[in-house]
Amino acid sequence: MGRRTHVVLAAAAPALLLVLLRLHMAVAADPPFSCGAPSSAAFCDRRLPIEQRAGDLVSKLTLEEKISQLGDESPAVDRLGVPAYKWWSEALHGVANAGRGVHLDGPLRAATSFPQVILTAASFNPHLWYRIGQVIGTEARGVYNNGQAEGLTFWAPNINVFRDPRWGRGQETPGEDPTMTGKYAAVFVRGVQGYAISGAINSSDLEASACCKHFTAYDLENWKGVTRFAFDAKVTEQDLADTYNPPFKSCVEDGGASGIMCSYNRVNGVPTCADHNLLSKTARGDWSFNGYITSDCDAVAIIHDVQGYAKAPEDAVADVLKAGMDVNCGGYIQTHGVSAYQQGKITGEDIDRALRNLFAIRMRLGLFNGNPKYNRYGNIRADQVCKKEHQDLALQAAQDGIVLLKNDAGALPLSKSKVSSVAVIGPNGNNASLLLGNYFGPPCISVTPFQALQGYVKDATFVQGCNAAVCNVSNIGEAVHAASSADYVVLFMGLDQNQEREEVDRLELGLPGMQESLVNKVADAAKKPVILVLLCGGPVDVTFAKNNPKIGAIVWAGYPGQAGGIAIAQVLFGEHNPGGRLPVTWYPKEFTAVPMTDMRMRADPSTGYPGRTYRFYKGKTVYNFGYGLSYSKYSHRFASEGTKPPSMSGIEGL
């Protein structure tokens, strides 16, 4: 962290000291494990292959015990010394308490919260993505070893291609390019699972388990009454092969992922969790997947209850187990599994196959090797969670992802010596929780953009301007007064989790409510061209701001995580040179005429269908994929083989 960072953090010192005190006071309880006492059971014999050990354990279970293990909350089998296990934990951009397996409510109450994935992707830096994965794997073990987790299987990353700008969960993904998404998946998974960034994989020893989701062609939540639960995605073989499936192939083949999650939707009429061709033939057969397959939560139930694909609950159980799924997020198989067996719809081998995959994962995590605190990852203690190096990386990730979209007449960077006062205006300017996106845990620190800017400008005022991002209640008069009284104005606008999130897609691409009016009126009243900072995951049409000379600069900061406020301030004042590039196309408002349910990637000129993503889209854009400015001046050119590179002295900013 630089000098200015320490100035900002000084205001938060009491809270930081409290966090540090809690970390040092964290007295580790024993994490759940098996085979702690001497045992003659083959499943406790570490010398045997994991497949043999898992098979031995499964062979010792009764039918009822077996079925009980096929839900995400798997109960203990006390007579065999097998503890309960919770499969569902989240770590999309930091260890979170959004699932059932992690409990950040004991001595450890926080974990490093990185930027939401869409912003991290804007760095186009695989090494950074890998290092984030490493931190998440380490902190996951630290929480587990401290007795505050009941599982080490984390359902991340989300690697669905960001196909439509309205998708509420696009923020969770690395963007619209399948190759880039696949690269992100591979290195992130390697980091989480304790592997090197490249090279051979030791698949028998996991630091934590990562899970590629949602397999496949899942990118709609709830659009005009069409829900993800009922949606049947009509996808061509070509689009499936060159857009929707490649990230998952990379996640498995290059990343060595130990988990896959099948999605809610159907693809060409078949629920993905009931698709043998997808789960067994493609993932396990063609890609040699070695791990477990989970459903999304309650996805087995909807096969019968919503989609009507299965005629009875027992049919749904049979469909997914025979397709190759292993564990149900939810209790549907636990409820209907025995009757499905009794009715002859599933066999003992269907059940045992799934269980062997599940127990093999727990064994690869070392949870059947005695107390994990005395094994390979046992030295990862509570003091590894929220450690300084991890928080520094969260700051770097935010810095490197921020994208400068407009900078007329050198509006940025600001000069501390020349800025006597600043008005910070907008609903996203002084609320730290808005920086985190979704699927987050309690962050190690919490600094808003306004608080960070106070470390640079003594005379700083904040006016919210709108009630929230929805901006259906505003106080434009107060905002205009503040703008007219200040030397400089920084507006923090955009979206929040009420506009875009799981189960919520957008209907419009512009700024919500009265935001555009607020921005224009503030810009008209300000003494100098204003700076507009956009906090959002999905793209917004800000053509009005792009073309308004009274708006000097536009910055996209995504949802930048725990250090986002600091990173934004450092970029605005030139302590960090923005180098992020957009990982998605920013479409104009008119794109909403295209049905979100149309899964075709390629344009169809005969019908006016414009296509999707930079690879195929033929329409106008607000900003292109890969767009981003810098405070430096540079140029690129292709050179023929053998051409001597130019002297670096002639390139500004190097």
The helical percent reads 25-40%
* CATH architecture assignment name of the largest domain: Alpha-Beta Barrel
Which CATH top level class of the largest domain fits? Alpha Beta
Instruction: State the domain count.
Output: 2
Q: What is the overall pLDDT average?
A: 94
If helices are DSSP runs of H or I spanning 4 or more residues, what is the number of helices? Answer: 21
Rg for CA atoms? 26 Å
| Spatial strand order of the main sheet | 12-17-16-15-13-14
List segments where confidence is low: pLDDT < 50 over at least 5 consecutive residues. 1-26, 648-654
Q: In total, how many beta strands? A: 17
Distance between the termini: 22 Å
Oligomeric state of the chains present here: single chain
CATH H level, superfamily name of the largest domain:
Glycoside hydrolase, family 3, N-terminal domain
CATH topology label of the largest domain? TIM Barrel
- Biggest pleated-sheet summary: 6 strands, mixed
Determine the strand fraction and express it as a percent band: 5-15%
Helix and strand content put the structural class at: alpha/beta
Shape: globular
What does this structure look like?
The chain is an alpha/beta fold. The chain is 32% helix and 10% strand. It has a 6-stranded mixed sheet with strand order 12-17-16-15-13-14. α18 links the parallel β15 and β16. It is globular.
Task: Write a compact overview of the structure shown.
This protein is of the alpha/beta class and 654 residues long.
